[in-house]
Amino acid sequence: MRLNHLNLTVSDVKATIDFIVKYFGMEVRHTRGNGFAVLLDDGGLVLTLMKGDQVTYPSTFHIGFIQESEDRVNEIYQLMKDDGLSVNPPQRSHAWTFYVQAPGGFTVEVLC
Q1: What is the pTM of this model?
Q2: Entry's CDD domains (predicted)?
Q3: What is the distance, to the nearest Å, from the Cα of residue 47 to the centroid of all Cα atoms in its chain?
Q4: Three-state DSSP class for 66?
């Protein structure tokens, strides 16, 4: 068994779609106005995004995008930095990793 569906409530569905597609390559399968979207990855994950008026996740809540190499983590970090996102450089922790705030109101970990 594997987890293959996640629904996130986000403050801005369109901005969240743009972020996830640009940096992580997920495919938009369906949208319904500015309030709902279905995204798919190449491993079978179905990520749905739903618009919420008050989005508050616990400070430790995050989702992760595992990359194939440290070089890929570094590339995504540099792209985000070049795009003006507030990101600290990757560091060695439980993995080669960094965290970034997604525009929808949640944290994303990029790791290898």
Answers
A1: 0.95
A2: VOC
A3: 10
A4: strand
